[in-house]
Fold each of these.
Amino acid sequence: MANEKKRERVLITVKTYPTLSGKYDELVCTAGFREDGSWVRIYPIPFRKKSYDEQYSKYDWIEIDLVKNTSDFRPESYRPYSHDSQIKIFDHIGTGKKRDWAARKAIVLQHVYADLAVLISEAKDKGKCTSLAVFKPTKILDFTVETVERRWDKKKIDKLKANRDQTTLFENPEDPFEVVDKLPYKFRYVFEDRNGTISRMMIEDWEIGQLYWNTLRRHEGDEEAAIEDVRNKYFDDFAKTKDLYFYLGTTQVHHYTARNPFVIIGTFHPPKTVQTSLF
């Protein structure tokens, strides 16, 4: 059967920090829920090259023409019908009122995992091949920071420049687009699941990257102060004062080979529900 396009409605809940692709330039992996509650991953999208009214935010409802991404075996993976597929934003679920958090919860918390071994088993089961999930950690133990390479791979950058010179020579000779800065740190949560199993999992959320750059500017280049602000938000705020859930996703290359193929691709952190006594 032909891989036919379908106009889909998706509530965006995940936007990862941009990565580089020799074919598509800078890419953002996004994911979210259809109206029936099923997960869908949308990749590739050259997000920052989209027009302003197509640059959706998390918890926007969007419409987009999708087809199954046949280069990706994971069942949730789809791609835009074409590189220039139009994205229409038609609604947003905000958090200004309690009912808005309830509206988010009604979609996000339909199927929540608390046992990491069960989730990993489903990922390795080729009949299920689960690659996106909502996960509830039982206990957050720590938030760690690791120094990594500060610059993108030079060969990849050179290839992007060469491709851009060839494809935009006549169309956009003064293309102002620039590649996003590479994060010089990796951020991880250390946590327990309901069985007491301890895991260290990397966070690849767009928001943690933007938080770092924004606080770095505010602290006039003081990286230690910026890191402390990130830790305060993700550990002291999200982990200690909010009802924290993880959006987890696998990487295609490590889905069947890694002991734990999941990384944290976003957080869901509604306010904690306060239960009052009737007596």
Amino acid sequence: MLALQWNTKMGTIGGDVLSGIQTSIEKAEKNYKGLVIANEGANFSAGANVGLIFMLAVEQEYDELDMAIRLFQNTVMRARYSGVPVVLAPHGLTLGGGCELSLHSDKVCAAAETYTGLVELGLGLIPGGGGTKEFVLRASDEIQHGEPENLPLQNRFMTIATAKVATSAHEAYELGIYRKGHDEIVMNQSRRIAQAKRSVIEMYDRGYVQPVQRNDIKVLGRSALGALLAGINGMEKANYATEHDALVARKLAYVMCGGDLSEPTLVSEQYLLDLERRLFCRFAAKGKLWSGFNRL
């Protein structure tokens, strides 16, 4: 069993942490039954290093920005598709990139007092570390026969667009971040890492099989995009959203619908990751980040 921990006050995720996660997964695959990602700080993680993103955008280092986002995406996908189980044991603030790590782990053993969500829209960004992709994937899996296909997508879109944060681990089930019947809540925070270790061993002993990347994600294209854009315009006109909020929400809708597709289409995870990364970097290149960062 291998455990990766870091001990900064806010648990900011930067290049060193991402490299550490990838190295830990590699070591776990060679020598251990699995990996637990956790820390003993005040919070699990307040998200990615926003200051670095801002600096790269200001200095117009767009290739570096693309590489930084690509590194984050590659890391969460490495966790999802590793050869051994990867279990997250979050607590306290688990926002942005921390939430994206949760979405891509094999299992989450969260402290009851965990506050998690994709908060990037509050900073004038779209989730670029795989969070948008994962919500589209889950919305695709939630489509029910006889119900409107765009309903799960609309719900997932609103969760990101309003930067909702679960006020407890239990509420994270309702937001679709944690999976009912799979992810666990640990009432005693000091026991979450021990429970995560047990979960890794149980998954390994049952015969863990490395997952295969998905290429059957149903995106809805222009029909769903039109409905989302109409809703965004209504919120902007009613002064429920600022002009900049509406602009970012439109970019989010574009990604979550799979781009400008004429009809519903099955796409791969990598297709959606590339789309969200390109939109993120293009937004930065056009100087659209400033309004969001001015709120900090």
Amino acid sequence: MSTPRRPGRLTRAWERMKNEPGLVRNLAVTLALVLLASVCGGIILTNQRFNWPWEDELTFYVTLRSSPGVSPGNGQEVRIAGVQVGDIRSVDVDDNGNAKLGIAIDPQYRVYDNAKVVLRPKSPVNEMYMELNPGGPPGKQLSDDAVLPVANSQRPIQIDEVLGHLDVNTRDALTSLLSESDVALAKAPEQLPEGVKATDQVARNLRPVAEALQTRKDTLAKLVTSLQQIATSVGGNDTRLSELATALQRTLNTVGTRSDSLDATLAALPDVMRQLKQATQAVQGLSDQLDPTLDNLQKATGTLPDSLSRLTKTADRIGQTVDVAAPVVAKARPVVADLRPFTGKLNEALPALGSITRNLDPVTGNLVSYLNDLGAFVVQTRSVTSLTDGNSGVLRAQVGIAPSSVPTDLLNFLSTPKPGR
């Protein structure tokens, strides 16, 4: 027979809680309170920028001449280019009497030994934050617990330091100005945008003036620098300055002794100027005449390439024509040689032909009226002299020629003696 199994410790505790009145309720309330306290504590610690011990951070120290408004452990920020990368963890005094601040930042940001730090106010109540310029190569990267010297920091400027240089009247006036500004800016949301736009337009209009003033300022600065250099160079060499003064005195004396020649030269100067003016006018007239010529020449130069190209094509065609005409010229040479003896006789006959051609016009004019009769004469003559026709072969007409049938002008022409006969 087996022995019964004893219940476990948790089972017995649970049975006891059920048997004891109100115990389960008390335990539930206690657990709820613990859970609520944990949540509240976590929220509070988060808002208070609580630093968990297991966080991975880069910790190093910064040395400042003074650290006003620094409260370590309260989450005062460390910024790089305006981005929060860490906070200030501790503050202490080193052996030289300088403030030594402990800094913890995210390890993904690298800081070098040529980094620069400065404390800046975050609010009017002097709440501070640290602006960090991490530096870079050729500087060496900082490791944990490294220390940046005082030379890598800048002294923070406090508002009270600025106001401390003002006297009582100025501080009162500044206070009144701030009070009046509060009243004046009461309707700023409605009126300020238009004023800002007008100010922007005025600034745009004044920009050329500001640029001109800046240019004038730069020019004056260059002039002052040049004068300073000249004064320094001249002042540093008394001997040369004395020689310059002596030479100037001699020059003035020489000019004084030659005043008559100088007056004569000045008196002749107007005539020289008049002649120079006339020559200038003549040159101007010549230039006025040359301008159209140059314009035409420019136009001609514009069309000359086309003309040259056309002339080149014409020359090519002439060359082709010469090549084609060469055999014809070779064959024409014997004919020309045979015709040369007749040119002399032709020249002798030309005067006689000239006198005959002068009389051809009236003869031709008289023959025009007889052309119809001449045509009929030719037809009748051919019919008369024909031995056969459609009917029979017999002579059917006679031809009679009398002096009265010949034109008078033609008789005069035939009876006139000709030159050379």
